[in-house]
Amino acid sequence: MRKLLEAGVHFGHQTRRWNPKMGKFIYGARNGIYLIDMGKTVDQVNVAYAKLKSIVDEGGKVLFVGTKESAKQIVVDEATRSGSFYIANRWLGGTLTNFRTILGRTKRLKELEEMEANGDFDKLPKKEVALLKKDLEKLSRNLEGIKEMRRLPQAVIVDDPTVEHNAIEEARKLRIPTFAICDTSDDPDIVNFPIPSNNDAPTALKLLLGVLADAVVESKGGITEFAYVKDQAEEATMKDAVRAADIANEQRKAAIRAQKQAREERFKKMQAERNARFAERKAAAQGDKEAPKAEEKAADQPKAA
Prior knowledge:
flat, Rossmann fold, five-stranded parallel beta sheet, three-stranded antiparallel beta sheet, Helix Hairpins, alpha/beta, single chain
């Protein structure tokens, strides 16, 4: 569990933000933050890994979904590494439940890409080319990862079941097995294979999505990058996770104190600069008032004969 600890898998959400259904995966709370039981994470990963591998063994295709910023590139990288499909920009309604329409859009995307590659755009009016390129950019942004998906996937993996609830809902309607990284605020019952973990930290997402990608890679006879890799350091326990949470909390407090001190110093500097400007303006105004008096006094002096 050392790698899970180092990746921050054990950090859940604040205790005021949680889903009671995740209670069975929670070890406890520390400093207002729930700690996820990494032993339960390992158990769930093993179950999900075995199921995903069996699906791919039978010729099934896998779709990775993750559209939030912390997950986008990870989803693209792990899906690409495992030869899977992915959606990392935006989930289009009906991607699964209205797949025939999606097939039409992916066909259009490939047609436009072929036109651009063959130089056909150079033969068309500029206005028409501008519209075609705009359409190509939009289609590519949303469908690039599934343009070669000719049939429905047999498994859907999401980084966050709350954010990607539309993908989960469509997969459930079609009885497609779903796998998800579930944080303490998520509902694990809406997916078939929930994996309890921090799903905000890129390090945690990289590790767990990487392990799931390895299930696909292993089934295809490739070399895994995360699964079966033995930790060189001493094995971690939940006591280590508690200590790590305490250290993180102290670091957070230190950062807050440093930010507060920096704000106070900026405020003092601004006050000093404001007072200096006020003093300068006051001195200048005083000088303006005294100048006419000096002139009157000089005018009243008797002139020399």
